[in-house]
């Protein structure tokens, strides 16, 4: 295994979702490297560190990750561990996370040396649009990635196990698409394969009528708005609108 080029997959457990009011209480990582045969694979470089968030952990987040205040009371603070985990320079090509927009709130550019990011959630919707949904765990059980050791990916909502699962998705993405393509998709809003709310929930975007699509063009959610814009552009170029019968699909 050649380890001169790595992408470090990370996962954070926190006291909440809005820094600086909330802080990190655990970080986990798992590296993926380009092997000598030209395929990306998980490496032996991985780990997890408890972090003192500098404030109590609310019960609502303890109920998710089960990290207790007494477990992090003597742990290092975020500014003492972040750079060494996030910036394994010069080998790191990029950082990756599932729904990376969340991690990027805490892993700021000064801590990452301005790293590029890959969001495996956004990329999964591009590469595997038929998945029933796109959470880290749904993808795990729907895709059943080769080599994923079930017990090593548990418990869910702890930093290293979640990073370990995400790394398997990233590995397979990198073996389907280029780094540049994954970064490009990650820098855009999410392209949703199906409508996820309202009376058209579950439909593919080409199946909804123009009036419904027009409403989504003004949605507050940037992923919904972006997806609606892409669909409107496709229709403007003469793209098919409506549901196809099984016979019509066979004729395509």
UniProtKB/TrEMBL annotation:
Residues in Exonuclease domain copies: 6-179
GO MF assignments: exonuclease activity
Name of a matching Pfam family: RNase_T
Domain of life: Bacteria
SMART domains tied to this protein: EXOIII (SM00479)
PANTHER family according to UniProt: DNA POLYMERASE III SUBUNIT EPSILON, EXODEOXYRIBONUCLEASE 10
Name of protein: 3'-5' exonuclease
UniProt keyword list: Exonuclease, Hydrolase, Nuclease
């Amino acid at each position: 295994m050649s380890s001169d080029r790595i992408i470090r997959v990370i996962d954070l457990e926190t006291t909440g979702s809005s820094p600086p009011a909330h802080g990190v209480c655990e970080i986990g990582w798992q590296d993926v490297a380009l092997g000598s045969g030209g395929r990306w694979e998980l490496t032996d470089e991985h780990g997890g560190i408890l972090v003192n968030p500098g404030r109590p952990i609310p019960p609502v987040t303890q109920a998710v990750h089960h990290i207790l205040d007494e477990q992090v009371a003597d742990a290092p603070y975020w500014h003492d561990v972040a750079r060494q985990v996030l910036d394994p320079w010069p080998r790191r090509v990029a950082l990756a996370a599932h729904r990376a927009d969340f991690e990027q709130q805490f892993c700021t550019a000064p801590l990452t040396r301005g790293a590029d990011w890959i969001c495996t959630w956004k990329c999964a919707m591009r590469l595997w649009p038929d998945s029933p949904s796109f959470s880290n765990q749904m993808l795990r059980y729907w895709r059943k990635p080769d080599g994923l050791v079930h017990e090593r990916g548990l418990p869910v909502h702890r930093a290293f196990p979640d990073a370990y699962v995400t790394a398997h998705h990233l590995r397979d993405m990198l073996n389907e698409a280029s780094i540049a393509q994954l970064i490009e998709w990650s820098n855009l809003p999410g392209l949703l394969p199906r409508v996820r709310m309202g009376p058209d929930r579950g439909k593919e975007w080409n199946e909804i009528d123009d009036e419904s699509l027009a409403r989504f063009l003004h949605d507050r959610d940037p992923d919904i708005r972006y997806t609606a814009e892409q669909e409107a552009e496709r229709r403007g170029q003469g793209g098919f609108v409506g549901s196809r019968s099984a016979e019509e699909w066979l004729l395509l």
